[in-house]
Amino acid sequence: MTRSVLVTGGNRGIGLAIARELAAAGDAVAITYRTGEPPEGFFAVRCDVTSTADVDAAFEKVEAEQGPVEVVVANAGITRDTLLPMMSEEDFTEVLNTNLVGAYRVAKRAVRPMLRLRRGRIILISSVVALSGSAGQTNYSASKAGLIGFGRSLARELASRNITVNIVAPGFVETDMTKVLTEAQQEQIRKQIPMGRQAKPEEVARVVRFLASEDASYITGAVIPVDGGLGMGH
């Protein structure tokens, strides 16, 4: 059965890999993007997740195109890294508003149709730094940790309605966001990873595909690391 799927921030990196993986599984996949040009092959809607009106409009367009959304992946996110003494209040609140409150807006809009269908999958993309912390990323780490508390509380609210909520926590992944680091910085991070390498976006996407599948029907409120062992012990 073809399901209607929406991936926020699905135009590059992990989001695009997730969209491709779910499309390969036979789902009708729509993506949102904030800037640039969307990739070909997907129903794409420009959407800023910091705007409730944008999120509502995106869902309406997707519903009109491919039916009520049965699987939503809240992946849209930004970074504004700097040490706390230099971090402006805007840098802190912008990251929280996009990464955490944006996921709230998306999940809230997705839930009502799922309740009517009495089925659904909500998957939140967090990060290894949600639990391990990361110097220079107090804002990002706080937003990604917030997704865990939000997701687990929502999982308890929705479990009796056959709607699962799970959190994926990627580690260091090869994306445009990590390419800006110098080779020395990347090597320093690789030394901390037991598996000694970065993840490919597809490795995160395959875990999302599993959580969205019937095989994961009895998994909810889980935090699944895809980090090569980087976050072990957290």
From TrEMBL:
<keyword id="KW-0560">Oxidoreductase</keyword>
<keyword id="KW-0276">Fatty acid metabolism</keyword>
<keyword id="KW-0521">NADP</keyword>
<feature type="active site" description="Proton acceptor">
    <location>
        <position position="140"/>
    </location>
</feature>
<dbReference type="InterPro" id="IPR050259">
    <property type="entry name" value="SDR"/>
</dbReference>
<comment type="pathway">
    <text>Lipid metabolism; fatty acid biosynthesis.</text>
</comment>
<comment type="similarity">
    <text>Belongs to the short-chain dehydrogenases/reductases (SDR) family.</text>
</comment>
<dbReference type="GO" id="GO:0006633">
    <property type="term" value="P:fatty acid biosynthetic process"/>
</dbReference>
<dbReference type="Pfam" id="PF13561">
    <property type="entry name" value="adh_short_C2"/>
</dbReference>
<protein>
    <recommendedName>
        <fullName>3-oxoacyl-[acyl-carrier-protein] reductase</fullName>
        <ecNumber>1.1.1.100</ecNumber>
    </recommendedName>
</protein>
<dbReference type="InterPro" id="IPR036291">
    <property type="entry name" value="NAD(P)-bd_dom_sf"/>
</dbReference>
<keyword id="KW-0275">Fatty acid biosynthesis</keyword>
<feature type="binding site">
    <location>
        <begin position="9"/>
        <end position="12"/>
    </location>
    <ligand>
        <name>NADP(+)</name>
    </ligand>
</feature>
<dbReference type="GO" id="GO:0051287">
    <property type="term" value="F:NAD binding"/>
</dbReference>
<keyword id="KW-0444">Lipid biosynthesis</keyword>
<comment type="function">
    <text>Catalyzes the NADPH-dependent reduction of beta-ketoacyl-ACP substrates to beta-hydroxyacyl-ACP products, the first reductive step in the elongation cycle of fatty acid biosynthesis.</text>
</comment>
<dbReference type="InterPro" id="IPR002347">
    <property type="entry name" value="SDR_fam"/>
</dbReference>
<feature type="domain" description="Ketoreductase">
    <location>
        <begin position="3"/>
        <end position="176"/>
    </location>
</feature>
<dbReference type="InterPro" id="IPR020904">
    <property type="entry name" value="Sc_DH/Rdtase_CS"/>
</dbReference>
<feature type="binding site">
    <location>
        <begin position="140"/>
        <end position="144"/>
    </location>
    <ligand>
        <name>NADP(+)</name>
    </ligand>
</feature>
<dbReference type="InterPro" id="IPR011284">
    <property type="entry name" value="3oxo_ACP_reduc"/>
</dbReference>
<dbReference type="GO" id="GO:0004316">
    <property type="term" value="F:3-oxoacyl-[acyl-carrier-protein] reductase (NADPH) activity"/>
</dbReference>
<dbReference type="InterPro" id="IPR057326">
    <property type="entry name" value="KR_dom"/>
</dbReference>
<comment type="subunit">
    <text>Homotetramer.</text>
</comment>
<feature type="binding site">
    <location>
        <position position="75"/>
    </location>
    <ligand>
        <name>NADP(+)</name>
    </ligand>
</feature>
<keyword id="KW-0443">Lipid metabolism</keyword>
